[in-house]
């Protein structure tokens, strides 16, 4: 199956819109593991095992591994997810953005070295920074569109005077993802849960692309408003999928040896809240 098929299958099998973010920070690990980067794999694998039936996707953030020279642990983790949760797609959160042969190498890293099903990208160098990833059949890409950080306004909320209608930059990215850039049907968008009105606007402009939505949980995004702004479908079929990410609230739900059980409890509560927020 291609990425969007995997995503929809996971949504219906696990009855979930919850993307579990894997951002391992050893300084926040449980007391018996704290400040030990050699235990990154062990920590993340335990969270994966505890939430495998609750997630629409897992999203490892590559910087949290690379900063600790733990890329080998990331490779092991990706392989573990394939075994522990084969029905759940993996989104590698890398936010790459380069052109030419460099972009080709980044695509090879994401899809061949790590075996990701999708990767996050910065689109601001143009289509030739995205195209190398689209050469991998069935693989997905998520383009940064309207991000949850306040500084996103500096560029994303500016008008493009040279384009008909003078759209905001994030609106233009949404149109490109829905239209001319979506050569494979596997292009999605990253939009922040802290801006539900902008999520709704993105969904209006890009009615069928998958949305990756960070910002629910520790960042304060409202689950109900996020789902109602971005998800489209009915009980049988999803026409506009969303994967709503929560990282820290799940990963660091407990500082004790029961951290995996605590992660499951928070993930289950978040999953239920997101499901209840679907329009009926």
Write a compact overview of the structure shown.
This protein is an alpha/beta fold and 280 residues long.
Mean pLDDT: 95
How many domain modules? 1
Percent of residues in helices comes to: 25-40%
What is the alpha-carbon Rg in Å?
A: 18 Å
Kindly state the number of beta strands.
10
Kindly, what is the distance between the CA atoms of the first and last residues, rounded to a whole number of angstroms? 28 Å
CATH superfamily name? Aldolase class I
Q: Describe the largest sheet.
A: 8 strands, parallel
Structural class: alpha/beta
Q: Can you characterise this structure?
A:
This protein is of the alpha/beta class. The protein has a single domain, classed as TIM Barrel (Alpha-Beta Barrel), CATH 3.20.20. Helix content is about 40%, strand content about 15%. It is built from eleven helices and ten strands. An eight-stranded parallel beta sheet has the order 2-1-10-7-6-5-4-3. A two-stranded antiparallel sheet has the order 8-9. Strand 4, helix 6 and strand 5 form a beta-alpha-beta unit. The chain is globular, with a radius of gyration of 18 Å. The model has no long low-confidence stretch (mean pLDDT about 95).
List the helices and strands and how they pair.
Elements (H helix, E strand, L loop, with lengths): L2 H12 L3 E5 L17 H12 L5 E4 L1 H5 L4 H14 L6 E6 L3 H14 L4 E4 L9 H4 L5 E7 L22 H10 L8 E5 L4 H10 L5 E3 L9 H8 L1 E2 L4 E3 L1 E5 L1 H4 L7 H18 L4
Parallel strand pairs: 1-2, 1-10, 3-4, 4-5, 5-6, 6-7, 7-10
Antiparallel strand pairs: 8-9
Helix pairs in contact: 2-4, 2-11, 7-8, 8-9
């Amino acid at each position: 199956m291609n990425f969007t098929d995997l995503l929809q299958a996971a949504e219906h099998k696990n009855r979930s819109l919850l993307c579990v973010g894997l951002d391992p920070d050893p300084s926040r690990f449980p007391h018996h593991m704290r400040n030990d980067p050699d235990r990154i794999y062990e920590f993340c694998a335990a969270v994966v095992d505890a939430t495998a039936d609750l997630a629409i996707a897992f999203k490892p953030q590559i910087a949290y591994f690379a900063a600790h020279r733990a890329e080998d642990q990331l490779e092991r983790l990706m392989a573990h997810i394939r075994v522990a949760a084969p029905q759940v797609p993996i989104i590698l959160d890398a936010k790459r953005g380069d052109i030419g042969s460099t972009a080709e190498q980044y695509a090879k890293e994401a899809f061949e070295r790590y075996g990701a099903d999708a990767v996050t990208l910065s689109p601001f160098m143009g289509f030739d920074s995205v195209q190398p990833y689209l050469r991998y059949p069935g693989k997905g890409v998520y383009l940064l569109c309207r991000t949850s950080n306040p500084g996103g306004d500096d560029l994303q909320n500016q008008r493009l005077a040279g384009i008909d209608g003078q759209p905001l930059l994030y609106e233009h990215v949404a149109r490109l993802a829905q239209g001319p850039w979506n050569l494979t049907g596997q292009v999605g968008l990253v939009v922040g849960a802290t801006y539900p009105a902008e999520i709704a606007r993105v969904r209006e402009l890009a009615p069928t692309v998958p949305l990756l939505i960070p910002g629910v949980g520790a960042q304060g995004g409202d689950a109900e408003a996020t789902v109602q702004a971005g998800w489209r479908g009915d009980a049988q079929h999803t026409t506009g999928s969303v994967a709503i990410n929560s990282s820290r609230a799940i990963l660091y739900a407990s500082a004790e040896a029961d951290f995996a059980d605590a992660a499951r409890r928070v993930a289950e509560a978040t999953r239920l809240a997101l499901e209840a927020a679907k329009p009926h």
